[in-house]
């Protein structure tokens, strides 16, 4: 279903199996980030906003993202937005308070 939505083919089995999962240059870290980005896309499609915020948290906690300010800025914004969009629950409340403790959040005044 995601394949059709984004115009990447007809959604048949051939389209799904033709794409390589990884290349020889892929590291486990790169594969992990790719996996969580796909999970964010899936959660967004299914309107599972708290799950998307949690997937963004996993991406944010990776060392390669922490080392790149442009990446952690984008990921932190996504984490905040999806946590706020999630339906009110104890889990959403906990997620928002965990995000509020992030030191990098101070560098994004529009998100605080």
Task: Provide a descriptive summary of the structure in words.
With 112 residues, this protein is an all-alpha fold. It has one domain (27-107). It contains seven helices and no strands. Helix 3 (28-45) runs antiparallel to helix 4 (49-60) and helix 4 packs antiparallel against helix 6.
Summarize the structure.
This protein has helices spanning 2-5, 13-18, 28-45, 49-60, 63-66, 69-85, 90-100.
Strand-and-helix sequence, N→C? HHHHHHH
Rg to the nearest angstrom? 16 Å
Number of strands: 0
Mean pLDDT: 85
Number of domains: 1
Instruction: Determine the structural class based on helices, strands and strand pairing.
Output: mainly alpha
What kind of oligomer do you see?
single chain
Helix content: 55-70%
SSE blueprint and pairings:
Layout: H1 2-5, H2 13-18, H3 28-45, H4 49-60, H5 63-66, H6 69-85, H7 90-100
Helix pairs in contact: 3-4, 4-6, 6-7
Features:
112 residues, mainly alpha, globular
């Amino acid at each position: 279903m995601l394949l059709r939505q984004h115009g990447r083919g007809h959604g048949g089995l051939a389209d799904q199996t033709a794409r390589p999962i990884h290349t020889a240059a892929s590291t486990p870290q790169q594969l992990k980030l790719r996996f969580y980005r796909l999970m964010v896309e899936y959660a967004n499609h299914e309107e599972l906003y708290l799950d998307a915020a949690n997937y963004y948290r996993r991406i944010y906690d990776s060392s390669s993202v922490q080392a790149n300010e442009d990446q952690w800025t984008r990921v932190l914004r996504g984490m905040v937005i999806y946590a706020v969009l999630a339906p009110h629950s104890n889990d959403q409340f906990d997620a928002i308070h965990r995000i509020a403790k992030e030191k990098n959040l101070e560098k994004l005044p529009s998100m605080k």
